[in-house]
């Protein structure tokens, strides 16, 4: 039987969407909240990610041990994540356990936020921040992102900084939660073998009393000041280069052409950067990609290698950027269009992946597009589409960062 899309909206604004597949062997549920690092005031940067951790510390009548035990007993594969754009809590289970999983996720979404849990988890977050300081790419990326977006909150670090986390108070977190974790800022996504109407009824009973806050987000395209970032670190022995440029927003269908263009430039194999930098032995790593966001988008180019060759690496990248549009061929388009179609199709094979796709789609765009429709858009991309997106959104780095060993 065909997969059927269904949608419901509770009186308080909570959106529930589902892709029902009677032939599926499993089912998945996710609560998607349209809030992330970009929605935080600078002094409380990192509160969204911190709050994600606090959801697992328990409710007024469930301890953290209760949550772990109940998910474990139902055999759930559950987790959560926070990005600049959204926060998601999800579980993948056998169909007969979906009601239990959805109920438990919904109860989790109203945490106790106890002071003692807050104090304990603050230390965990600070350890996580310290861990990322040992990863050269993330050190460079976070500082380049801050320079790229300037004062705009898209430059915020998802984990926050040591100072913002140390200064954060439990009452600030609670205020943020009450404002952003509202019914009208949340999407519940379901997929797999399920009874959608029954699920809606259960979710309404559990979440129908959630508050409506009419919270919003400024998604106008931000000004990009850009600039340069130069970091010297005695702990590194290699050289690292990162370039950032503007791209289409997530609501712009040119994002598909932008993704293909970035792959022509810097896919992990058989791309311009792979052949000119990796196969020649000039660089150890070289890749390019494209990340769409609400209101804007970003191309990135990353490479690493011998510090003394970083100038040569940058020169090769700049030459490949200058020649990119004129070098495009039908073979590039067919090959990468097929790879993108394969990636999209594989992401739609399992209920958990469909649930994620559906939840992100409604959280970012508020509308539905079938997998088949999305594949149709990809199949219709032409070389002219690649040239057009390159004309409107040229991959011209606005921000350039380097991370090098400390000078002797």
Overview of this protein structure:
The protein has 408 residues and is of the alpha+beta class. The protein contains 15 helices and eleven strands. It has helices at 47-55, 64-73, 98-108, 115-132, 136-149, 162-167, 170-180, 196-207, 255-266, 272-278, 310-327, 330-346, 351-364, 371-379, 383-392, and strands spanning 4-9, 15-20, 27-33, 77-82, 87-93, 186-192, 227-233, 239-247, 285-293, 296-305, 399-405. The strands form two sheets. Strands 1-2-6-3-5-4 form a six-stranded mixed β-sheet, sandwiched between helices. It has a five-stranded mixed β-sheet with strand order 7-11-8-10-9, with helices on both faces.
Quick synopsis:
The chain is α+β, with helices and mostly antiparallel strands.
Number of strands: 11
Q: Percent helix among the residues? A: 40-55%
Shape: globular
Distance between the termini: 68 Å
Kindly report the average pLDDT value: 95
Rg over alpha carbons: 22 Å
Uncertain segments: none
What strand line-up does the widest sheet have? Answer: 1-2-6-3-5-4
Total number of helical segments? 15
Spell out the key features of this protein.
single chain; 408 residues; alpha+beta; 6-stranded mixed β-sheet; 5-stranded mixed β-sheet; globular
Chain-wise SSE layout:
Layout: E1 4-9, E2 15-20, E3 27-33, H1 47-55, H2 64-73, E4 77-82, E5 87-93, H3 98-108, H4 115-132, H5 136-149, H6 162-167, H7 170-180, E6 186-192, H8 196-207, E7 227-233, E8 239-247, H9 255-266, H10 272-278, E9 285-293, E10 296-305, H11 310-327, H12 330-346, H13 351-364, H14 371-379, H15 383-392, E11 399-405
Parallel strand pairs: 2-6, 7-11
Antiparallel strand pairs: 1-2, 3-5, 3-6, 4-5, 8-10, 8-11, 9-10
Helix pairs in contact: 3-8, 9-15, 10-11, 12-14
């Amino acid at each position: 039987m065909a997969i059927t899309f269904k949608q419901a909206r509770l009186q308080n604004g909570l959106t529930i969407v589902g892709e029902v597949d009677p032939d599926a062997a499993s089912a998945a549920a996710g609560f998607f909240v349209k809030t992330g690092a970009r929605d935080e005031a600078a002094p409380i940067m990192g509160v969204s990610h911190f709050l994600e951790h606090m959801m697992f510390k328990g409710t007024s009548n469930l301890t953290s041990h209760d949550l772990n035990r109940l998910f474990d007993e139902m055999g759930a594969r559950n987790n959560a994540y926070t990005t600049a754009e959204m926060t998601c809590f999800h579980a993948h289970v056998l169909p007969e356990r979906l009601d239990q999983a959805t109920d438990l996720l919904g109860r989790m979404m109203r945490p106790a936020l106890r002071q003692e849990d807050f104090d304990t988890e603050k230390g965990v977050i600070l350890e996580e921040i310290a861990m990322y300081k040992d990863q050269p790419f993330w050190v460079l990326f976070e500082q380049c992102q801050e320079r790229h977006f300037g004062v705009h909150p898209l430059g915020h670090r998802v984990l926050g900084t040591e100072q913002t986390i140390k200064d954060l108070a439990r009452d600030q977190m609670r205020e943020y939660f009450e404002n952003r974790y509202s019914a009208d800022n949340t999407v519940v996504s379901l997929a797999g073998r399920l009874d959608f109407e029954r699920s809606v009824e259960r979710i309404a009973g559990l979440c129908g009393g959630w508050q409506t806050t009419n919270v919003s987000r400024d998604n106008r395209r931000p000004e990009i000041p850009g600039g340069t970032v130069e970091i010297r670190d005695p702990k590194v022995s290699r050289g690292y280069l990162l370039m950032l440029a503007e791209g289409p927003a997530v609501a712009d269908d040119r994002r598909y052409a932008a993704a293909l263009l970035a792959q022509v430039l810097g896919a992990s194999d058989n791309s311009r950067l792979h052949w000119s930098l990796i196969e020649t032995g000039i660089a150890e790593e070289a890749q390019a990609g494209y990340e769409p966001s609400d209101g804007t988008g970003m191309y990135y180019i990353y490479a690493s290698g011998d510090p003394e060759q970083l100038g040569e690496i940058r020169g090769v990248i700049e030459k490949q950027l200058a020649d990119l549009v004129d070098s495009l061929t039908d073979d590039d388009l067919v090959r990468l269009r097929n790879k993108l179609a394969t990636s999209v199709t594989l992401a739609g094979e399992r209920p958990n992946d469909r649930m994620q796709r559906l939840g992100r789609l409604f959280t970012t765009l508020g509308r539905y597009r079938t997998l088949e429709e999305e594949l149709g858009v990809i199949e219709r991309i032409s070389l002219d589409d690649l040239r057009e997106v390159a004309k409107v959104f040229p991959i011209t780095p606005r921000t350039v960062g380097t991370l090098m060993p400390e000078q002797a």
